[in-house]
């Protein structure tokens, strides 16, 4: 079965073709970073319009790259949520319409399920069950995963998502959008011994997160340490490092707790923040020490992409899932309301 995947939930147009026998055949991404850069963040209306411009040309491109005539596509998968509703509707409308025109089935994909399953595209794919840490711009979730669609939320964020905390703190440090990768780069030249930020909600039981206090801590630290005779550039780098240390440490503590609580021995991390080198290294080092295995997607599939949507859609279409002719974008869509796939587990 050959599936065309369409991702337009936020600021990236991602298109891919996944073949259930041959694997990933083609994948293309158009990033809107340049479009939103002047505004310091994603402007939803501009995002939607850009998806309108880019989706069909990218679909033509991946079909050509895969050497796959449109008639060889057996199904279409598109992200239906969660995300920006206008952006989602572009992918939903194009995906559903093409499926109708080509007379093939269509399926809605949950964006975070796409992230969660992305490590299964790799050669050393994790077996079920596993604990997944999903860390993106909009979500911070710890999920017990028994199979495809069998998701129990163990922990959630009470305020900012991990990626959002990176982005907001980056902005406070004067860094350009998108802030996460920029802050991570700045942290490389920071002194880890100069400041120590709190590890929020780690000294009480439970698996929920709260990251919004860290950005206040960053502002206060900045204010207390800038003056005429100070090296502001170095202070910014030191704050970036202390902030990143705190986020990574907090995520690590909660992951270990989740593994202990569930008795599971495999940890998957996915979503944009899983591209963070320090987070990957720290989890890897701990895994070795404590005897659990950790799995990530390749860097290009940590952030938004069409491959994860084509793949999740292929699993669901293969299991017989389909939607009717109506479609809708869902800005909010809890991951634990998805259907379990019969043959998973
Ligand atoms: O998964 P994603 O591409 O989009 C959403 O579904 O939100 O995640 C984007 C988020 C942004 O907040 C971005 O700053 C963050 O992931 N991010 C990073 C890194 N790369 C992306 N955060 C920290 N370090 C990185 N290297
Ligand atoms: Zn995402």
Can you describe this structure?
The chain is an alpha/beta fold and 345 residues long. It contains 10 helices and 10 strands. A 5-stranded mixed sheet has the order 3-2-1-4-5, with helices on both faces. A hairpin with a 3-residue loop joins strand 2 and strand 3. The longest helix has 31 residues. The site of 5'-O-[(R)-(carboxyoxy)(hydroxy)phosphoryl]adenosine (KG4) has 20 residues, from helix 5 and helix 6.
Based on the model shown, name its key terms.
binds zinc ion; binds 5'-O-[(R)-(carboxyoxy)(hydroxy)phosphoryl]adenosine; globular; 10 helices; 345 residues; alpha/beta; five-stranded mixed sheet; Nucleotidyltransferase, domain 5; 10 strands
Write a brief caption for the model.
With 345 residues, the chain is of the alpha/beta class.
Any chance you could write out the topology, listing elements then pairs?
Layout: E1 2-7, E2 12-19, E3 23-31, H1 33-37, H2 44-65, E4 75-81, H3 85-102, E5 106-110, H4 111-117, E6 130-135, E7 140-147, E8 150-155, H5 162-172, H6 179-187, H7 212-224, H8 232-262, E9 266-270, H9 277-290, E10 293-295, H10 307-318
Parallel strand pairs: 1-4, 4-5, 6-9, 9-10
Antiparallel strand pairs: 1-2, 2-3, 6-7, 7-8
Helix pairs in contact: 2-3, 4-10, 5-6, 5-7, 5-8, 6-8, 7-8, 8-9
Query: Based on DSSP secondary structure assignment, what is the total number of beta strands?
Result: 10
Domain module count: 2
Mean pLDDT: 97
Largest sheet: spatial strand order: 3-2-1-4-5
Briefly note the CATH topology name of the largest domain: Nucleotidyltransferase, domain 5
Gap between N and C termini: 21 Å
Low-pLDDT sequence parts? none
Major beta sheet, specifics? 5 strands, mixed
Helix content: 40-55%
The DSSP helix count reads 10
- N-to-C series of helices and strands: EEEHHEHEHEEEHHHHEHEH
| Beta-strand percentage range | 15-25%
Query: Tell me, what's the shape?
Result: globular
